[in-house]
## 1
Amino acid sequence: MLINKFRLAEGKRHRRQRFAASAVAGKLREPSSGLPKANGTGGSGLRRPPLRANCESQDLELSRMNSCQLYLASSSPRRAKLLEQLGVCYRIVKPEIMEEIGDGELPAEMVLRLAIEKARKGAEMVEEPLPVLAADTIVLVGNTIMGKPGDRNQAKKMLSRLSGKTHRVLTAVAICQEDRIEQAISETLVRFRHLTEEEQISYCNTDEPLDKAGGYAIQGLGAVFIESIRGSYSGVVGLPLLETSRLLSLFDINCLGNRNNGLVRDN
């Protein structure tokens, strides 16, 4: 009785070993369905449907590459993200201009001039006769323009001036195509709550203020300082979508009827 049990166990062990060895050697076959075999069936006789996912994604990418509608003349990832909300297909150029206020120039005149200069400079950098969109943003406390802080100390001074006050944010948008220029400007009132010394220092230590006009980011951690806003949120971020969509329509780019959505990469 014990010998029979031992032989039965040994037989099962040998069968498991043979099964594992044949699987490693690739000798296992799918059960036959009785149908004739065909190429690409894996031996089952059933033809699998072709996989289209990769082909469709490649076709979509090629279509987008051929459907670029405009250029964005900006190195700002925030403006690029806002433009993607409108569903347009775009490429990026990065013009460099001198951003200084002219003698006797009003803030609204300055921000419009800079947006136009960026758009024109961007148009000079591209070969295709597509519209080139650019924008510029400034923050005003009274009539004083608050630029981008160069370090944490400058950022803290700006926050101290903004604390407990209402300031203005002006963003101009310009679109250039060959000799044609269209422009618009957005004005928004933003009120800060009172900021403690500790809050100002802590925020500056995040380095978020360093590349932002006025020394804060409404779309980032700086949002916790904002008591109220009257106007365009996207304008404060850097690209007022209402004004931008209106300008785009003048160049036959309909945001509502067009969902290409996003950056066209050249690589």
Note: Residues 2-24 form the longest helix (23 residues).
## 2
Amino acid sequence: MKTVKLVISLLPALSAVLAALSGCASVVPPFAQRTPPYIAAAERGTVHRSLVYKTVDDIQLRMHIFLPPDPAPEARRPAIIFFHGGGWYGGSPEQFFPQCRYLARRGMVAVSAEYRIKGRHGTLPPAAMADAFTAIRRLREWADRLWIDPGRIAAGGGSAGGQLAAALAMTTGFDDPEDDLTISAEPQALVLFNPALDVNLLDGLEAFQGRAEEASPIYQVRPGLPPTIIFQGTEDRTVPYQAAAHFTNLMKQAGNDCTLVTFRGLGHGFFNYGEHGNRHFRQTLWATDRFLVEHGFLEGEPLFTPGPGPAPEVGGASDGD
């Protein structure tokens, strides 16, 4: 199996700049990290709404929607929808609220969606997948209401949520039969954080009810898939790094645009806000911004910089082992 040798370099100069940034804000979140100034500014500038997008029996599922500060843009806005991690068992949409606030400040409609999970609703992963399909369809259905460009909707997520986001572009047969299937569920870009690309490698395989291969994006690679960026740590003991590397090579071989950003020595969830002094949160957010600019979702430069010196190394598949 080929691997991808694309490494974020933790340069001393970069570390110094990021340390300086983290001391500039005045808001202290629960985990005692000072809010980076670009997130604090976004908190002051964005509007957060919570809308029910789906009701199943007595379960109401909500989208948490972050709107840009400009109330009346001339052109329709791009959008991104995130799905949280938690092994299809737990987790919270709040995981991606910091990314949503920042991207809304940059001009996107940014959404973090709830979906059914076993620990709260007693459901299995196929139900979560059905909810993800409903969520992106509902976002497109609400395009006029939210002034969204339905042709520029990205999907993102972490771990189990990364599987859900990728599944929107790659899998079939997991739609909710109550959905309006005339509305496309395909995203135009994928932003994936240590995603579960091969569920055969995970514990609890039986939860997929014999459909693990169908549900695994790694077995569904084909030409014509949306541009993708993946953030992955080499020491991830939950979602193996090798799966992300192999997936990236398969995507490139099929002619797709796929970038793997490797963080050596880091494990699962390294990218989350509040982890590691927010160093890797900043790096992944900066790279996400640049990726979205490259593919026509954003314009201009990020609202912050990772510091002087070479930019973090990102790219596609390599010819490594």
Note: The longest strand covers residues 148-158.
## 3
Amino acid sequence: MIGSARKPLRASRNPAQGVALAFALLLLAVLPAEAADCALRFAWWPWEPYHYLDEDGRMRGIDHALVTEAARRAGCSVTWEQVPRRRSLVLVQEGLIDAVAGLGVTAERQAMGRFSRPLRSGLNVLLVRKGEADRFPATRLADLAGQGFRLGVIAGARHSEEIDRFVGDPRVAGRIVGVPNSESALTMLARGRLDGYVDGYEVARRLMPRLGLDDAVDIHPVRLEGNTAHMLFSRASVAAELVARFDAALSAMEADGTSARLARAEGLE
């Protein structure tokens, strides 16, 4: 069973938050007339708890909620188009999709589009089979490099620089296993085809009971770098000024407690 974790989204208590809020509200107050008519196409794929369909077929998720509110404050409407995760980046680069939510920053992605300020932050965890954490002692991920550890890496995911460094370590050559998604990684781990894989804590704690594997998998005690997730806007279809307006909206949402409230409403810890 998964234990407690740090809360990734909090309302700011910094004394400077009043200044940040005032600045963001000033930016939003000068909304040009044409921006009020903007309509953006966001890509999504099933990825609970970030964007997914609930049992009634309604869009849900913390990224969905944050984007919807930020767009409202920026004077934009949003439509959501379901596409495969990796295909979404190609569509953003070509301007056929305007934006994607929930991505980590990489140099390759920066060439495709413009990143917003952080949409949210999150905790990464290393998942291993129940009772096997002691087989692979480690206080940091790099400690596993010389232990023959088979790490599953989810295609298209970018968790942190720490994990990128581990994957590129010559000592793990031939021990990195590509997997299409979290569901496949968790199933392969339970069946002994992997020794572990990295996922977001919020994803893992929902997926394990849904697949009936919450008693088959543990979180390894190694502490991993966290991450920040952003919106990536197409350079081909979205002006830099509009990205700045979303940044102002996100800053105001963090300062006034909206981001934390929406996270609680979506059940994030």
Note: The radius of gyration is 19 Å.
## 4
Amino acid sequence: MRLAGAALLSGLWLLSLAIGAADQSLADLFLTPEGRALMLESRLPRTVAAVLAGVGLAMSGQVMQVLARNRFIEPMTAGAGQSAALGVLLCTLVLPGAAIGVKMAAAALCALAGSLGLMALIRPLPPTQPLLVPLVALVYGGVIGAVVTFVAYQGNMMQFLGTWLTGELSGVLRGRYELLWIGAVASGATYLIADRLSLLSLGEDAARALGLNVGLVTAAAVAAISVVTAMIVVTLGAIPFVGLVVPNLVARLAGDNLRRALPLTALAGAILVLAADILGRVIRAPYEVPVATTIAVIGATAFVVMLNRGRTRA
């Protein structure tokens, strides 16, 4: 399974390098000076950015589902993505000339606050009503999104709002995507504590009985989710649905053992985002469809099919 996924990702990687507005073949990209410059400045960074974003979104979505003990929740629609956009917006209004690192920190702190707020809201919800969690998460994310829109309107920055709330990769160049590596490190950190996170899925009382420091592990996981979400929003904009669909599909193949499931989740997330970006480039070439829009269509279709199969088996 992993070998097939790796082969598919490799094929998509080469296809992504070969597709673009400039008329350059894959051989030209490696053999001519102009082709190498194009590849290094634009096409390779864009491909790497898509892969890193897919890995981060899918893994953070799976970790959040473990923390919330609910499979119908993911950071980009549950307040973390909107909070990160709010952080970037406030930083831009208060410190217009701030460096990208300052905006990154503001986005990460706001995403952390938004994630902690969601955890506090869903904690008292009865476990016998699992649909309440995604409902509360959607409303919570919608409220924060409304605040973002209001602040942007008051600050005369509505023209920039779409950049942070609609993910797309057309503007990715060398020197403008490297923050995603920070998100990749944060995603890798969640794999290091995968066994402890698996214990959390048993419930806090059971995890404590097994000797787990629930507060520390939860804090580390929420911090990782916040960093990943902030890096993606600052660099590419919000890309929803990846963290919802991919973990659910992988769970059907790998089960709930995060140590086993997270690598498959990362691989599937990278494939989904890279395939969606390629599709967005060819649907209306030479124009582009934002990757967030393409993923919404793909993700919604896959999720409906998955639910129907589950109902048939039941």
Note: The mean pLDDT is 81.
